[in-house]
Design brief:
Distance between the termini: 85 Å
Strand content: under 5%
Structural class: mainly alpha
Helix content: over 70%
Largest sheet: none
Order of helices and strands: HHHHHH
Length: 147
């Protein structure tokens, strides 16, 4: 009987100490002068990540070397993500590569032969959105050239 009471009391004291430490740590964290700045920055990064790859990720389409580097990186990332089972992000990277590819029809033929049919269908459904982003990116580049 006494062993049960003492273990219950010990568990209660440990629980109270843990809650006390959590409250102390939270107050110390919130009183940090940079806490709000770091929190805002983290939220901005999360929002940017949720918006997808975005226009800022696309290379300068006039720079052939940057486009080639971007193309190879996107193909590699897409293949790695597909191998890991992350089909959505893998398809996103492959569509980015197709968008900047000089010969997209040939690349699509190769992908059709290598990818499973459902994954290739996902890729085909994503293509119109990436082409719209490319067109809008080229439009913004032309506007910058005018200024």
């Amino acid at each position: 009987m006494m062993g049960g009471k003492s273990s219950t009391i010990a568990a209660g004291v440990c629980g109270a100490l843990f809650v006390g430490y959590c409250i102390y740590f939270d107050r110390k964290r919130r009183s940090d002068p940079n806490f709000k700045n770091r929190l805002r920055e983290r939220r901005r990064n999360q929002v940017a990540a949720k918006q997808g790859t975005g226009l800022s990720k696309l290379p300068d389409l006039k720079d052939a070397e940057a486009v080639q580097k971007f193309f190879l990186e996107e193909i590699q990332l897409g293949e790695e993500l597909l191998a890991q089972g992350d089909y959505e992000n893998g398809i996103e990277h492959l569509t980015n590569a197709i968008a900047v590819c000089g010969q997209p029809q040939q690349l699509l033929q190769v992908l059709q032969q290598t990818l499973p049919l459902p994954v290739f269908q996902m890729l085909l459904t994503k293509l119109p959105t990436i082409s719209q982003r490319i067109v809008s990116a080229q439009g913004s580049l032309n506007e910058e050239d005018l200024e």
